[in-house]
Amino acid sequence: MTKTHELNPDYYKPEVLKPIDVPVIVDYLIITDEHIWDAKKIMPLKYIGDLPGAFEELAKLRESHGFTTHIASISNIVKGRYGNFRRNARDLQETIRNFLKHFVKTHRTKYLLIGGTDSVVPSRKTCACVLTECVSPKRTASIMVISNGRHLWWHGAYYAW
Known about the structure:
By secondary structure, the protein is of the alpha/beta class. The protein contains 5 helices and 10 strands; from the N terminus they run H-E-E-E-H-H-E-H-H-E-E-E-E-E-E. The protein starts with a helix and ends with a strand.
């Protein structure tokens, strides 16, 4: 992608593009992107590198264990390569949610990995599950979950331990 496309608003408007080839069943879905996003405007702000490429090794590892995998970029979701999920969406979070509802249902997805910080894959009122325990973040900054002796700190869009 050239530098002109990175910040060109017309580049990210839904358009008719060739759909991305996705297996009928996708056990393991990875969502990530190469940009930091302005969630309200549904616009990329800054190119940060090939983050989707960084997840290729994990996808290959999952496939070697019998899982069908797919890496979906926010850019391709916004461009309409999977369908128009921006219709009636208030922001990028709702666009991603619309995509996930459709994708999980049509491809019978069991596992989801969101790769990146909250500025790459924005979230709103997310919850986190570790094995059988689930927590829902409050308005405070961090929540600690203890699962099988591990201390996991919830920081909004990801776990760090």
